[in-house]
Design a protein that fits this description.
Length: about 60
């Protein structure tokens, strides 16, 4: 990696930045993933007349 536009410790800096920001990325994407799974389960439940487990959790919060 001998190139004049590389920083001296660029690979190390990139790995460090990725590892530091991974928990933040997980926190931001988990609700979106959970909503997609819940919506998919809800749409499937319309055909089977069963309430998905994630909807029970939401209903308990609304009551």
């Amino acid at each position: 990696m001998k190139h004049k536009r590389f920083l001296k410790n660029q690979v190390r800096l990139e790995i460090t930045a990725a590892l530091l920001h991974m928990p933040l990325i997980a926190v931001l994407t988990t609700p979106i993933f959970w909503a997609e799974v819940c919506i998919y389960a809800y749409r499937r439940s319309l055909h089977t007349q069963r309430i998905p487990a994630c909807m029970d959790y939401v209903k308990a919060d609304l009551l």
